[in-house]
Amino acid sequence: MQVFQYPSQTQWAALQQRAAAQEAQEIEQRVQAIFQDVRQRGDAALRDYAQQFDGVQLQDLRVTPEEITAAVAQVPAELQTAIRQAHANIWKFHATQRTEEKPVETMPGVTCWRRSVPVQRVGLYIPGGTAPLFSTLLMLGVPARLAACPEVVLTTPPQKDGSVNAVILFTAQLLGISTIIKAGGAQAIAALTGGTDSVPAVDKIFGPGNRYVTAAKQLATRHGVAIDMPAGPSEVLVIADETANPAFVAADLLSQAEHGPDSQVILVSDSMAVIEQTQAEIERQLASLPRAAVATQALTESRAILLRTPEDMLYFSNQYAPEHLILAVRNPEQLAEGVTSAGSVFLGHYTPEAAGDYASGTNHTLPTNGYARNYSGVSLDSFLKKITYQRITAEGLLNVGPVVETMAEAEGLSAHARAVTLRLEAVARTLE
Known about the structure:
Elements: E1 2-5, H1 9-15, H2 24-41, H3 43-54, H4 65-72, H5 77-95, E2 104-107, E3 110-118, E4 121-125, H6 134-146, E5 151-156, H7 166-175, E6 179-182, H8 185-194, E7 204-206, H9 211-221, E8 226-227, E9 235-240, H10 246-257, E10 264-269, H11 272-286, H12 292-299, E11 303-306, H13 310-320, E12 324-328, H14 332-336, E13 344-347, H15 353-358, E14 384-392, H16 394-410, H17 414-431
Parallel strand pairs: 1-11, 4-5, 4-7, 5-6, 7-8, 9-10, 9-12, 10-11, 12-13
Antiparallel strand pairs: 2-3, 3-14
Helix pairs in contact: 2-3, 2-8, 2-9, 4-7, 5-6, 6-7, 8-9, 10-11, 10-12, 16-17
């Protein structure tokens, strides 16, 4: 990690920069071509891309019930138990996010309320590759089920033998998801956007992915399909004071660095000793890390920054707006009160970010690349639409009608005023 000692605030913006996306224009052009191809050739295009990118010839793009049954039998009992416990914790936390429908009488005879309606068709994209993210399927599938979305479609890349990762299929069965498509990459997003013979078109797409998937999701929004949020590489910022355990801090930094070579980890401390000891711990722990090469590459774009006060450290973090924020400090609750921009916050020395990734209950699908300034992570609300209703009685119209007439006429919208005036006149006739 690069170390910066007491940088002035004029230097902070440069230190808060994420790695610039390379070849963005080329990626977008390639994704646009994939969208057009999938729109024109449908399933045939998906099978061709499976052979090209995944090295497998597929006859049927849909996972069969027999494949799911066979996969479940392959998952070790210990892992099944762990996934079930994580599922229970995530369900319990997200269930508290349900809100009651509460009618409000804003004036006598004027009643307004809001009702939550599930997004009717949602698509969940789960990457495969070297790290099949069954944990992300839990994070997306649980709130989708709590929201009672009528149609949930899962897309995930096939393995070399044409199967889908067994743990992903076990998790899908646990969630009650039966529409599972063997498709990955931008082509899966294209299929969810426009639909094919095998893939239902959806209203909203959720899930992480590489730069091609991210570009595809952004392109989907131009075709009237919503997405969970703008996404980028994983990131964590750790605020550590002299009470922090350097071994814990190093492990937290490496847990994000191992996600991918473009991940970014930031250590902010008011103790040079903690920074130095954490650096040494990173080197020591890297030696036994299976994904050491990936983590090492990520560390080249990562930084350790020495600042003078807790206030400075918190101000730096709020400007950076990290996906994950760990407060490894003496009084984490006190410092947490000042957090204004972060995807998810982890308080104290015994709260690793990895717990949130898997099983504590909060959602790990979070805004990255500074979007925590204006986006929230995935929640139950992500799978719901909020529709407002109102009912006005004759008494209510007498109360609110003149207000509407005055405002509409002031804006020069006479038809708006007339829609009220005609009704007021009708009410007046009934009172004669």
